[in-house]
Amino acid sequence: MSDITSEAVTKDDINVDSVSSANAKDINAIGHDLGAEMLTNIQQLPFDEVLIREYLLDNPDFFNRYPELLVAMRLPHAERGAVSLVERRQELLRQRVSELEEEITSLMKIATHNERIFNFNNELSFKLLASNDLGDLRQALSEGLKGEFGFSHVRLITVHDIDSELANIWRHRLQSGYYFGRLTQSESSRLFGSEVGSVALTKLSDNNGQVIFAIASKDPTHFHPDMDSLLFSQLRHLLDHILPQL
């Protein structure tokens, strides 16, 4: 009897162990499948680079807390293959310093150019104000602008010189008060006596009648519609003031 019982118990124990082992394998398989599924889901989640960028900007000491990342992170480099974040940052800083040096050099050149124009404008203004008649005014204007900028022609055409062709230039080219660019061969010949590259034209105020102030350059690209009219505007206002007194 005891042998039968013992044998039965042993069989039951074997059955229980078998079931437990099978269940464990099933649980492990399920866990593995769940883990793989979760990893897949995580990999499929949207990678919000903007949030990471904002976090790093809001926490500039992040890499101080985790300095190992500076060396561990590798960034692609066109010439050196891969470099650390520290090396990449140093390279970017050197590039930025170089860019700032170029910007400063450019600004200094612009400042020097503007100072030169300011001094020239002051000197020319005094010469124009000292003119005794229209002939002196035209000569001072022409010599000054040609000498400083190398213009090929400088003309101040008064009402007495206006004819139908000049009147057309007055109406069509100077509607906005200024014209920068190129003229037709006919217009160039009428204004300057020959064909020119590019021109700057302006009309004086109506108080002086129909007066055209015209400058020409041999360079077809020297005067263009997008250029600054500051110097030209200053000369126009000065001529508007001087002409009625001559």
Automatic annotation (TrEMBL):
Keywords from the named record: Coiled coil
Matching InterPro entries: DUF484 (IPR007435), GAF-like_dom_sf (IPR029016)
Name of this protein: DUF484 domain-containing protein
Keyword Coiled coil: yes
Coiled-coil regions listed: 83-110
Pfam families cross-referenced by the UniProt entry: DUF484
Record keyword Coiled coil present: yes
